[in-house]
Amino acid sequence: MGSSSKNIEQAQDSYLEWMSLQSQRIPELKQLLAQRRSHGDEDNDNKLRELTGKIIGDFKNYAAKRADLAHRCSSNYYAPTWNSPLENALIWMGGCRPSSFFRLVYALCGSQTEIRVTQFLRNIDGYESS
């Protein structure tokens, strides 16, 4: 039990860290977007690209931490304990269910399996594989 609560705390800490970074970057992003509308200079576009890269990098780091913690306790991946009941309900109503992830993985793996079986059978029958 202690390990599970430690994983939950780590997941929550990484979420709070990510949200803190987002709250720091959003005002800067809004400012750059406002400047872009009024001036439209190329230097501003470079700053926007750089900031967007940072924001995406922040999310990638959060997702990587979350995925690492999901290996230890997968339920936190699908229904984080720090979400309110309303947030969890909205996630489910929006179609982000654990079964959706499983269906996606099955569909991707299933399509590859079907292709490989067909190629294998063609090789057995003496047909060329394309």
UniProtKB/TrEMBL annotation:
<protein>
    <submittedName>
        <fullName>DOG1</fullName>
    </submittedName>
</protein>
<dbReference type="GO" id="GO:0043565">
    <property type="term" value="F:sequence-specific DNA binding"/>
</dbReference>
<dbReference type="InterPro" id="IPR051886">
    <property type="entry name" value="Seed_Dev/Stress_Resp_Reg"/>
</dbReference>
<feature type="domain" description="DOG1">
    <location>
        <begin position="8"/>
        <end position="130"/>
    </location>
</feature>
<dbReference type="GO" id="GO:0006351">
    <property type="term" value="P:DNA-templated transcription"/>
</dbReference>
<dbReference type="Pfam" id="PF14144">
    <property type="entry name" value="DOG1"/>
</dbReference>
<dbReference type="InterPro" id="IPR025422">
    <property type="entry name" value="TGA_domain"/>
</dbReference>
